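User: Good morning. I'm curious how zinc ion would be positioned relative to this chain. Could you predict the structure with it bound?
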Amino acid sequence: MTAASICYDRIGELVTCVPELGDGSPLGVRTDAAVVVEDGVVVWVGDAGRAPATDHRVEVGPRCVLPGFVDSHSHVVFGGDRSAEFAARMAGEPYEAGGIRSTMAATRAADTAQLAERATALVQEMRRQGTGVVEIKSGYGGDVDTERRCLEVAAGLTEETTYLGAHVVPAAFDGDVDAYVSLVTGGMLEVCAPLARWVDVFVEEGAFDADQAREVLTAGMAVGLGARVHANQLRYGPGVQLACELGAASADHCTHLTREDVHALADAGTVATLVPGADFSTRSPVYPDARALIDAGATVAVATDCNPGTSFTTSMPFAIALAVRECGLTPSEAVWAATRGGAVALRRHDVGHLGVGAAAWLTVLDAPNHLHLAYRPGVPLAGPLAPPDA
Ligand SMILES: [Zn+2]
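Assistant: Good morning! Here's the predicted structure, ligand included:
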């Protein structure tokens, strides 16, 4: 072992998300366990007191250790504040996609340092609550320069950056969606693609229809970006089918799914990423039916959708609690969806689990087991045990 090796020993419950490392369940749970981390990578997992010699040893005790949450859907680069819009919605006004434009105006007015300061603070807030890897989208720029600035900020915080030029049509285009799609698939893509790993589009009435979305996604894929889609959030629609048709990594929201949509997700291997914080904050009358997705064989992830308009939470434990209470996941399924599921949605093999070779994002709960994440909603149980660079 080199000088950087640390043993986390006497862990009451270890959730590995590798079935064969634990009890054979998807969470791969083992009790009275130990993990050895070296240079930010998990190098050994086994029974307490049995680890090879290390330079440092931390006694964890009767608490739960699990992989850092993988928050595969966030919009933390933005300017402005929409608390008044939230209050109006709670007073009875409906949510429609156009509220995004008020954030666009505020984002353009902010300088890059202001955007970076806010986004950094939000990612730190995520980390304090046990999140490891986070995906961050652009989408509040609406012009080439601001989209580029937003992606530069995102790229300073994560490798999982997503170009969401096609969030809504900016007011300046006066409803000329095709002209804006030309920009998103042309000059804006050219500037933004080098800063992004993914391309995303909001398929919704008031945003982009299936044909426009297909143009956006195929243009991004043609320059090497992976596809993900905002799909079926506010009503039934073509987003999920389009995501599956194009082999997107993930279809996000999935609040309104037909039986055909559910089976398409299962067949295509496109992850259904549920963001119940958005359904909560828009007071959606329905939540995604995670039970139907799992029963059909689809892969389910859970994320925060942290954004100023419709889900201003950085808390993966909150998303887990909602996924259990409102979407029909069991507590164990929700924890998997928030860790390994998020990793699958980002096509990452090195995070979302604690097998040998994984990046050592270790989250610890002030609780004896992972069930407490859903069982004790609103209680700050989760925090970082050690980031990989500790
Ligand atoms: Zn979103």
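The chain has two domains: 6-68+352-386, 70-345. The chain is about 35% helix and 20% strand.
Let me know if you'd like a different ligand tried.
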